[in-house]
Each structure stands twice: as structure tokens, then as C-alpha cells.
């Protein structure tokens, strides 16, 4: 009789997730699930955060086949029984502070960990984009999976192109934001977001909002955002962000839209080489077009 091989993984809260065998049935936070999908792992269930509704947010899902994977709930309405009924061998989540599991109420997380191992990967401030990506790769590797051959080469090429287009005398001004509605907008602090910090490291001129109380965002009116005169706007595409059509009654949004190139930005994008290649390529193409005037 073949002996089982114990599985373990030390997560980014400093906790050891342990199972008698390598986990096969995995429930994930939707961003984590989209990342693992890019490594060849199919979740058996997904859950969202307090910003999500009863259905999954497609913008967070990457290439996940949402019609085929049950969405188990989100935020405060998510009961641990809903997660456990999916029969997981492992739950994979993310953490922004290195302590709390994002998307789960603390009580729910405690009850869940009493029944099933949980692994949380840190995706917040203090983590570099490559570091986040490699932590997910390490988890996927422990589960016997990995990204396709060639993914690393494609990412290297995309990073090279981004550095080339930002290396000239003209550097477009880039502003990342999340529309909060007609009255307010949340301006991203680049150092708080691993993907934005990576853009800066590759030469992108990201605009920094004024100092204030928000650690990740500076919440202001649209007049202040338009006054920063960006050439490119990375606009939050998640379902909880306001859509451009909702904002066009505001003169300052119209002024911003008239002069800036608008790009979709997902602060909770999959943390894989494939996803990061797409992101860097999107930004590089926009920078090139602004620089050349096309």
C-alpha cells in the first residue's frame, strides 16, 4: 500500500498550513484563484470580499471559467459552512497586513482554520510585485503545478519593452485612481501597490497625491484629480468602482477624459507572470502612443 506524503506550506502570516496529503480540492479568494488558475490549478470554489456582491466580480477573475466554478459568497454574508460544504483540502487567501485574511470576517477565518488548512499570501504594501508573484509560484509548486514554459521569457520581454519606451526624454505622467462617484475619487499612492511600484521601477512617471491620512488612497474631488494633468489614467475597473458613464455629468471628469488616455487598472489582478506580462504590455503601448502622438 502506497504511503501518503504529508504536505505543508509556511504562509505569509508566519503560519504553517499542514495536510496529510497534497491538497487537491482548493477553495480560494477570487484573486488567489485567478492566480492559481494561471499555474494550472482549478479551484473548487471561490469567495469575494466586503466590496463584492452575491456574484463574482469578473474583473478580478482573470481567466477563471466563472460559469463552471461555484461562487460561495463574499464579505460579511459569507458563512464558514458555505466554504466547508465545498469540501476543500485547502483554502488559499490573501492578506494585506500580514495578519488578517482579506475577505473573511475574523470570526469566520478562525472557524474555518479549525477545520481546514489556510494559506494566505501577502499582497499589500511592503511587498514587491516579483516577490508576490514568486510566493504564489512557490505555493503552486508545493501543489505540484507551475506556469507554462515561456511565461518567464515573455515577462522579461514585456519589462524590457516598458523600460525602453520610458527611457526617452519624454515621460508621460501617469495617475492611478479608483472612481468613487461624481463627488469623489480615490487617488492611489504608488508605493502602497506592488504593481504601481513595479511600474515606477521600470521608468513610468507615476503621480503621487498629496500627503494625507489614507495609507493606500487619497480621497479628493475630481477638480484636484484633473488639476494633476495626467497624460495616462489607470482607472480601477473593479465592480465597486464607478463607471465612466456615471461620471460624465462632472466637468472635471470630462476635462480629464478629454486629454488623458484611459486604461483599465485592476488593483487585485492575478499575481502571475502571464497577468503581469499583459499589464506591462498595456502600459507600454499607452506610453508609446502618448510619446509618439499616435
Structure description:
- This is ABC transporter substrate-binding protein.
- This protein is an alpha/beta fold and 294 residues long.
- The chain has 2 domains: 7-142, Nitrogenase molybdenum iron protein domain (Rossmann fold, 3-Layer(aba) Sandwich), CATH 3.40.50.1980; 151-292, Nitrogenase molybdenum iron protein domain (Rossmann fold), CATH 3.40.50.
- 33% of the residues lie in helices and 20% in strands.
- It has 10 helices and 13 strands.
- It has helices at residues 30-37, 80-84, 106-113, 129-142, 151-165, 194-201, 222-227, 244-247, 251-259, 273-292, and strands at residues 7-10, 16-19, 26-29, 45-48, 71-74, 90-95, 118-122, 173-179, 185-188, 205-206, 217-220, 232-236, 261-265.
- The strands form 3 sheets. Strands 8, 9, 10, 11, 12 and 13 form a 6-stranded mixed β-sheet that branches. The protein has a 5-stranded parallel β-sheet with strand order 5-4-3-6-7.
- A hairpin with a 5-residue loop joins strand 8 (173-179) and strand 9.
- The model has no long low-confidence stretch (mean pLDDT 94).
Give, in order, the helices and strands: EEEHEEHEHEHHEEHEEHEHHEH
Outline type: globular
What structural class do the secondary elements suggest? alpha/beta
Task: From the 3D structure, determine the CATH topology of the largest domain.
Answer: Rossmann fold
Output the CATH homologous superfamily of the largest domain. Nitrogenase molybdenum iron protein domain
Protein name: ABC transporter substrate-binding protein
Organism: Streptomyces chattanoogensis
Amino acid at each position: 500500500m502506497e504511503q501518503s506524503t504529508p504536505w505543508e506550506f509556511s504562509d505569509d502570516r508566519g503560519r504553517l498550513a499542514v495536510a496529510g496529503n497534497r491538497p487537491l480540492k482548493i477553495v480560494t479568494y477570487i484573486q488567489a484563484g485567478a492566480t492559481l488558475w494561471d499555474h494550472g490549478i482549478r479551484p473548487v470554489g471561490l469567495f469575494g470580499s466586503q466590496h463584492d456582491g452575491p456574484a463574482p466580480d469578473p474583473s478580478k477573475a482573470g481567466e477563471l471559467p466563472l460559469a463552471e466554478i461555484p461562487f460561495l459568497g463574499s464579505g460579511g454574508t459569507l458563512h464558514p459552512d458555505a466554504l466547508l460544504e465545498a469540501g476543500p483540502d485547502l483554502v488559499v487567501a490573501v492578506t494585506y497586513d500580514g495578519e488578517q485574511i482579506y475577505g473573511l470576517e475574523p470570526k469566520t477565518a478562525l472557524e474555518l482554520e479549525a477545520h481546514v488548512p489556510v494559506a494566505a499570501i501577502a499582497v499589500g504594501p511592503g511587498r514587491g510585485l516579483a516577490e508576490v508573484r514568486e510566493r504564489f509560484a512557490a505555493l503552486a509548486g508545493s501543489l505540484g503545478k507551475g506556469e507554462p514554459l515561456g511565461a518567464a521569457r515573455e515577462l522579461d520581454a514585456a519589462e524590457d519593452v516598458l523600460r525602453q519606451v520610458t527611457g526617452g526624454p519624454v515621460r508621460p505622467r501617469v495617475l492611478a485612481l479608483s472612481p468613487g462617484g461624481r463627488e469623489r475619487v480615490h487617488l492611489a499612492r504608488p508605493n502602497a501597490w506592488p504593481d504601481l511600484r513595479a511600474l515606477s521601477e521600470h521608468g513610468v512617471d507615476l503621480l503621487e497625491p498629496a500627503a494625507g491620512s489614507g495609507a493606500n488612497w487619497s480621497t479628493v474631488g475630481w477638480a484636484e484629480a484633473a488639476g494633476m494633468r495626467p497624460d495616462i489614467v489607470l482607472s480601477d475597473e473593479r465592480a465597486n468602482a464607478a463607471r465612466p458613464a456615471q461620471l460624465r455629468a462632472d466637468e472635471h471628469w470630462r476635462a480629464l477624459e478629454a486629454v488623458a488616455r484611459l486604461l483599465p487598472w485592476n488593483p487585485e489582478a492575478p499575481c502571475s507572470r502571464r497577468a503581469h506580462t499583459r499589464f506591462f504590455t498595456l502600459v507600454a503601448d499607452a506610453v508609446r502612443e502618448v510619446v509618439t502622438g499616435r
